[in-house]
Amino acid sequence: MACIPPVPVLSLPANPNSNGNTPETLTLTTTEQWLVSSLSSSPTAVNLGALHALSLKTGLCRRDIVLSHLLLHFPSPSSSLLLLRSLCSPPDSPFPFNSLLSFFSRSSFHLHTLETYSILRSLSVPIDPSTLPPLLRSATLTSCIAAGFDAHALAFKTGLTDHLPIATALIRFYFALGRPALSRCIFDRCRNRDSVLWNTTIVGFIRCHEFDGARQLFDEMPPIDQNIASWNSMVDMYCNKMGDVEMARKVFDEMPKRDVVSWNAMISGYARVSDCNSARELFDNMPERDVLSWNALIACYVQNGFFAEALQLFREMQGFDEVMPNKVTVTAVLPACGHLGALDLGRWIHGYIKRQCIAIDLQMSTALIDMYGRCGCIEDARKVFNQARKKDTFLFSTMIEVLSMHGMADEVFSVFNYMINEGIEPNDITMVGLLKACAHQGLVEEGLRWFNTMEEELGLSPKLEHYGCIVDLIGRAGKLNEAYELILNMPMEPSPVLWSSLLNACKVHGDVELAEKVGRHLIELEPESCGNFVLMSNIYLTKRRWKDADSMRNLMKEKEIAKKPGCSSVEVRNRIYEFFAGDRNHPQCREIYEMLYWVAARLRYKPWRSWDLHEKGGDMKHKHALIHHSEKLALAFGLISTEEGTTIRIIKNLRICEDCHLFMKLASACFGRKVIVRDCHRFHHFIDGSCSCLDYW
Known about the structure:
This is DYW domain-containing protein. Keywords: Repeat. By secondary structure, the chain is mainly alpha-helical. The longest helix is centred in the middle third of the chain and has 15 residues, at 228-242.
């Protein structure tokens, strides 16, 4: 055996929690020093076994410092516990147990922490102030009531309940059990208190929803103990637990000092109450920002429908080298890409996820499928779905919803059958996607069969959304009276959406009598909705009832109800361009209109006949309105801004009209372009003069 130069005395750092039982300076023999030094240098398994054998042979394994190093360097928690159980006699002090308890608790081996404590108790090893805090932490995190109660009793018996780390751990334990009164009792009995004890008790009250208790304790807290964590707890309580943003802002403004956590909590609070302007104002005034600051504001924009602002903020974020988008960032941004049809940016984000090795879990896969599906790229959505290692109900439901939006009923049923075969239970969202697919393809019998048997076969009772799908399904198929009776006999109050669906079906099938009945009821339900008046006016127009159509338009003017403007967007070179009907604000306005008129001439375009009926006295305004619809402008811009053969993807906020639908079909054939239009109802894939909806929408 190689000899180590003798070192008669080894000095160890004092234990800050020690009560004096652990000596600060241990006198070691030469062999003992060599053992400690060898164990401290991360020995291999073979060397560890030899060192253990030497400690047993020399009897040094009974020395606290040697035993502590052996326990901490054994290859697994189980082997460390096995060594403890094999001790012929207990150690003289709790020092080895304290080391192991602390290590197991910090490493989240909480069950091993409890087992170590059990061995300590069985050997009647005395405890010191360092023994119980790690044990109580593991008991709290595992909800082990017996161990926590035993620790409390032992602390009381040994007079350690006033020791601050133990008192703090006990308070945290009882709050976790939902016993705030016991926690407060322990707090009140502490003669000496520090800021950690105060803050732990305040946070405990907040987590138990005892907000008055938290506020009372905060007000009682001595100013010397009030630190930034105390103030942040109160801001977070008012913002995210109580929803009282005004009170949160008052506390925020009173703070003597703020950190990034304070600002982030306040931004999240404004996000919860949909106050994006105040959130942005705070964000702009922050002295420093971290990734949580950016994530909070991006999520605020997305949750409140400000998708363009969310993407703009994400682009700004990329200009700061010190802040890197993380998993939360990209998960929040992907829905914004989907809603705006920002496919290029969505693909860039997907590539960023791969480059940064961000784990693509279920939530991420679901977000990617939804993004690709909403952007009209069903191929990439399929690829993400197929590559998902794990699939759950939400992932399947998202894929079904995406396929349904694209009118791919056969694939919807294929994915649904795959879901059932995998033993994954469908939910209400799954069935909405399934029924929508039936409605888009006119599969009346199939849709009714699933609607009538979903409770019996799947244990799902039909909800309002499912009734809405069926009304749409049978209404489009021309069974208007059946749809009307279904609405009247629903077990719940029908929503305006259901009535609107029936009214649209009346327009498609020309049933003015039922339309008038439904329209009157809709106007009573939603007197400020422009869509109902416009739809009724158009129904009258198709029947050449000019006076009735005018009366609807005049009624809108009297009520000062503005028609919702049609808006279409198209992505070109990673940027979203928006167009409104008759829009002339684009910098390339002249080129766009020249292209539009050239396309119309080449297609020999004439306005759709049912929309060309209401012409009075050569009113040129009405004659030119149709050709200036927003989706036609978006198409013209796409043609002049992209290379030949490139797919043009257009997002429309309203349902595409018959005239634009025909225009897109003709243009796709004339220019050899695939045109994908997502309106408020579904996707239309225009290829070689035909549409994926088969003119059934």
